[in-house]
From TrEMBL:
The keyword Isomerase applies. It comes from Scophthalmus maximus (Turbot). GO terms for molecular function: alpha-methylacyl-CoA racemase activity. This is Putative alpha-methylacyl-CoA racemase. The keyword Isomerase applies. It comes from the Eukaryota. The lineage of its organism: Eukaryota, Metazoa, Chordata, Craniata, Vertebrata. One of its GO terms (biological process) is bile acid metabolic process. It holds the Pfam family CoA_transf_3. GO terms for cellular component: mitochondrion.
Length: 382
């Protein structure tokens, strides 16, 4: 796999850093998640392929232990509020001094500087601060955050993974590590570059929810079908729009012009009535194999059995039967090989990891007895 041989220490976090760690693990890195001790249940739902060590970082020995792990690793990924790692004596200056090849990734909401850098926050706050949230939502309604996908995962976890891979690539030339300051506000804003940079072509001039790509245009919308499901329409270009009208059995000559913005509400009503006359399966049969850019809005229950996704094996099941998306993109020679075993219990690999990093068994016993580290059995498989 592409990242085979890369060792990552991931400090346990809420959602974005776990996703970043899972991407690295899916593509072959050895990812060791550092959990707290005395925590019953892991909150990491993105733990595929990771190992877990439980270390009490509020002890001097726990901090020394983590330093030793970082000394022999390529990447440390930390998701805490600004200053937390420095308070523990695990800041980048200290760790890079000991291991100059270390890539030290800091994944936060607001970045390592600026007046908000120490504030708590979540996806919705970061998205708001990126400017993007102001553009998301229906006409006349409040801005709406679409799940916690944009800041936490796209602007956060995924962007941070890109930063780590870039730093690993650069290290092959310089031999040096570096610090990554991954701010979810900036990651989300960067993701919005298209919106920023396409303002000059006039496609965002109207209010939120009234433009071509944000729900304003009838040919870029979802429509309910007679069985309560939905179809997605993305027929922007005239040659594709004609195909849409053909599938809907509408005569272009009897309709207002596609780009007549003042007629969009009327066109939208016509399309709404038409889509409501057949089931999702009927519409799929009509539009499949055409260039109308019309697809069913698949639910999580439907998605893996759709013939297209099925042929590509786009979704997979782990050993416990849990379904999830297969890692993307697909690399031809060194594709991801996601782990199919169930997620690790907190501290499941404490002993194994410490042994691998050179701790003697007597030392491990002492650390366990003193509560500096904790070992737990793998979760029972039902
Ligand atoms: C919208 C998303 C998040 C969605 C996640 C949800 C799925 C979950 C969020 C809340 C969960 C529910 C809740 O917990 C209640 C129930 C609990 C129950 O067990 C399960 C059901 C629950 C209902 C549960 C269900 C779900 O899990 C939830 C709904 C996001 O946007 S995530 C993005 C968040 N932002 C960031 O990551 C940016 C960077 N980080 C931060 O800004 C802060 O870390 C953050 C997130 C604001 C949290 O701040 P906090 O004050 O809690 O922590 P920090 O200041 O960072 O300090 C960390 C301290 O921990 C110490 N520490 C770390 N490791 C160790 C260790 N191994 N040993 C000892 N101590 C450790 C560290 O030293 C710090 O200590 P100090 O404070 O003393 O310095």
């Amino acid at each position: 796999m592409a990242l085979a041989g890369v060792r990552v220490i991931e400090l346990a976090g809420l959602a974005p850093a776990p996703f970043c760690g899972m991407i690295l693990a899916d593509f072959g890195a050895k990812v060791i998640r550092v959990d707290r001790t005395k925590v019953g249940m892991a909150m990491d739902t993105q733990a595929r392929g990771k190992l877990s060590v439980a270390i009490n970082l509020k002890t001097t020995k726990g901090v020394a232990l983590l330093r030793k792990l970082c000394l022999q690793s390529d990447v440390v990924l930390e998701p805490y509020r600004k200053g937390v790692m420095e308070k523990l004596g695990l800041g980048p200056q200290e760790l890079l001094k000991e291991n100059p090849r270390l890539i030290y990734a800091r994944l936060t909401g607001y970045g390592q500087s600026g007046p908000y850098s120490s504030a708590a926050g979540h996806d919705i706050n970061y998205l708001a601060m990126s400017g993007l949230l102001s553009r998301l939502g229906r006409s006349g309604e409040r801005p709406h955050a679409p799940l916690n996908l944009l800041a936490d995962f796209a602007g956060g976890g995924l962007t941070c993974a890109l930063g780590i891979v870039l730093a690993l690539l650069e290290r092959t030339k310089s031999g040096k590590g570096q610090i990554i300051d991954a701010s979810m506000v900036e990651g989300a804003a960067y993701l919005g570059s298209f919106v920023w940079k396409s303002r000059s072509v006039g496609i965002w001039e109207r209010s939120r929810g009234e433009n071509m790509l944000d729900g304003g245009a009838p040919f870029y919308e979802t429509y309910q079908t007679s069985d309560g499901k939905y179809m997605a329409v993305g027929a922007m270009e005239p040659q594709f729009y004609i195909q849409l009208l053909k599938g809907l059995e509408l005569d272009a000559g009897e309709l207002p012009p596609q780009m007549s913005i003042s007629d969009w509400p009327e066109l939208s009503r016509i399309f709404t009535d038409r889509f409501a006359s057949k089931t999702q399966a009927d519409w799929s049969t009509i539009f499949d194999g055409t260039d109308a850019c019309v697809t069913p809005v698949l639910s999580f229950d439907q998605v893996s059995s759709h013939p297209h996704n099925q042929e590509r094996a786009s979704f997979m099941k782990n050993s416990g039967g849990e379904e999830s998306p297969r890692p993307a993109p697909v690399l031809s020679r060194t594709p991801a090989e996601p782990c199919l075993a169930s997620d690790p219990a907190i501290g499941e690999h404490t002993v194994e990891v410490l042994e691998e990093y050179g701790f003697a068994s007597a030392e491990i016993k002492q650390l366990l007895a003193a509560g500096v580290v904790e070992r737990n059995a793998a979760k029972a498989k039902l």
